[in-house]
Write a structure and sequence with these properties.
17 strands, Bact_Antivir_Def_Nuclease, Putative prophage ATP/GTP binding protein, five-stranded parallel beta sheet, Rossmann fold, five-stranded antiparallel beta sheet, about 475 residues
């Protein structure tokens, strides 16, 4: 079951204003004056949907309300502070000494780090370096103290595992933490895509190509092993990676090739078995592949040169186009009807690539440079070509806007592993006016996107069928 966002509110933001947003069913576009709190709202929504305890803790507000189509939650943000721990835990004296030059935010950041990460990883943080440089203690002393505090934190928050006791002692914190966990469970099968104002476009590097991502894992899906990348706890948003685009395309192409080859081998075994048992006969009204389907399939799986395949196709085509000859060739009709199912098994994956190429070409054709993405349905390769010279172009050599749009559309159209909620701040960045008119429409039209929230200053991004989806924030100042 897909979740649907209905309302989102931040109460007492910066101590003096409430912000309210009502979502449209699928697309919500916010246009508001500077200082209204748009970016704070989209950040808070992202952290709420992802259940980011320590990101929520940093928001300077009293509470957050979120309403789905079937459930409402209230988060008491003030209760997420570590002040209760600092006031009640029996902290080592040395901890007070090594943190005396840190401000409250740095102390809370340190505690948040210790809750979730090993002490040995802390030395590169700003707060750790400040501890080291402003106190007489060495690394061993500081690490030892932080290890003690880490144990105290674990013991303090382990009461979360005893909700009855915890809710009596700290009711507001208990309710909020359980609400955060419920929201995380609710969104666990949804990918929350957050595209902030600052979006990075990465180049392919040797490290990308030869090092497996630590968040990448392999799973068995649809009868084959595929690699997927899980989002780490600290990954706050998508980084545009050209290598990711190439990897997605290669993975899809490899899946199509595997399915085709496996299906062809299984078909060969089935035909032999049917012939041995006398079942090899064509159906009365056989469903046959088209000539183009047959041509590209044989080009993938039959180990012959192009001329040999071309001759086979011509001979088969001449029979297929002659109803009498086809009717008299029972074994060919039988084989082709069986082959049709194998060919159809890869169509969904092929359509993903074709849709992606079509979408990207729309943007490339709107730009001044004559470039085009080409998908060779037989070899399963996608390449960028210069239309004047007909020479291939590396993805890395595209403009920043072209890289951004290709990376974004790859995520929307090539990756359907999860349904997506897309949160995008200023989609117009790095995009020409012509591109701005298309980008949100293409995001919303992705089969994997269930809802989209966009914040913009540009009227061009909704100068299209999304014009009716523009809304404003309700801001109440106290």
């Amino acid at each position: 079951m897909c979740i649907e966002l209905k309302k989102f509110s931040i109460k007492k933001l910066y101590g003096y204003k409430d912000i309210h947003l009502i979502f449209n069913k699928k697309s919500t576009i916010i246009i508001a004056e500077n200082g209204a709190g748009k970016t704070t709202l989209i950040n808070a929504l992202k952290s709420t949907l992802k259940g980011e305890f320590d990101e929520l803790r940093k928001i300077k507000c009293e509470s957050i309300d979120i309403e789905f189509s079937d459930q409402k939650f209230t988060l008491n943000i003030a209760a997420l502070s570590y002040s209760d721990f600092l006031n009640n835990a029996l902290l080592p004296t040395r901890f007070r000494e090594i943190t005396k030059n840190l401000n409250n935010t740095q102390i809370e950041d340190a505690l948040a780090f210790l809750r979730h990460k090993p002490v040995k990883d802390a030395r590169q943080t700003t707060w750790y370096r400040k501890m080291y440089h402003t106190t007489p203690y060495n690394y061993i002393d500081i690490d030892s103290t932080l290890s003690e505090v880490k144990i105290l934190l674990k013991n303090h928050y382990s009461s979360l595992e005893k909700p009855d006791l915890f809710s009596v002692n700290k009711p507001e914190l208990s309710k909020t933490i359980h609400a955060i966990e419920e929201i995380k469970q609710k969104t666990k099968n949804i990918e929350i895509i957050y595209l902030p104002t600052y979006r990075r476009i990465e180049k392919s590097t040797l490290r990308d190509k030869f090092t497996r991502d630590e968040n990448e894992k392999f799973v068995f899906r649809d009868g084959e092993i595929v690699s997927i990348r899980e989002e780490s706890e600290t990954n706050l948003n998508i980084e545009f990676g050209l290598f990711d685009v190439e990897s997605k395309l290669k993975d899809l192409s490899a899946s199509i090739e595997r399915r085709s080859s496996l299906g062809y081998r299984k078909l060969s075994a089935t035909i032999i078995e049917d012939m041995m048992t006398g079942k090899a006969s064509a159906p009365t009204k056989p469903k046959l592949p088209s000539v183009s389907e047959l041509s590209r399939f044989l080009g993938r799986v039959v180990n012959k040169d192009k001329e040999s395949n071309k001759r086979i196709i011509q001979e088969v085509t001449s029979i297929m186009e002659n109803k009498d000859m086809l009717a008299s060739n029972n074994m060919l009709s039988y084989f082709l009807s069986k082959l049709k199912a194998v060919i159809d098994s890869t169509k969904e994956l092929e359509l993903k690539i074709e849709s992606f190429v079509t979408i990207c070409n729309k943007y490339l054709q709107l730009s001044d440079d004559s470039k085009s993405l080409n998908f060779d349905i037989e070899t399963l390769q996608v390449i960028v070509k210069d239309l004047f010279t007909n020479n291939p172009i590396e993805l890395e050599d595209l403009s920043s806007g072209e890289k951004q749009i290709i990376s974004l559309m790859a995520h929307m159209y090539l990756d359907h592993t999860k349904k997506k909620i897309v949160l995008i701040d200023e989609p117009e960045l790095s995009l020409s006016l012509e591109w701005q008119e298309h980008v949100l429409v293409d995001i919303v039209n992705s089969p994997s996107v269930t809802q989209m929230l966009a914040i913009t200053h540009s009227p061009f991004v909704f100068n299209n069928e999304l014009k009716s989806q523009v809304t404003s924030l309700k801001v109440i100042k106290h």
